[in-house]
Design goal:
This protein is mainly alpha-helical and about 100 residues long. It is built from 6 helices and no strands. It has one domain.
Length: about 100
Amino acid sequence: MVLNNQKKLKIQEIIKRISLDKEVSLSERIYVEKYAQHNSILSFWLSKANSIRRHGVKNPSGINGLLQSLGLDDLDGENYFDPNQDDITDWFGGAPDWIKRS
């Protein structure tokens, strides 16, 4: 998917509103998700914005701040893979297309 400067700015504006927990319409959310499924940078931005929305900005010198800055939303501690109970294909089932291709 081609991402020109106008689309990039629109997506950044929507993602900023997500991080600030401002109103985002369903069509805007779908628009961002469509591009995030095919672009690792946009997926990272969206993941980080969702983490900030849920947990606020974390102290960058702590482990939670590091996880948040990397877009790894593991701050809840509830999303761990358990090899005794979880199937790896199901666990990665909701991953964006660019991860599934790896």
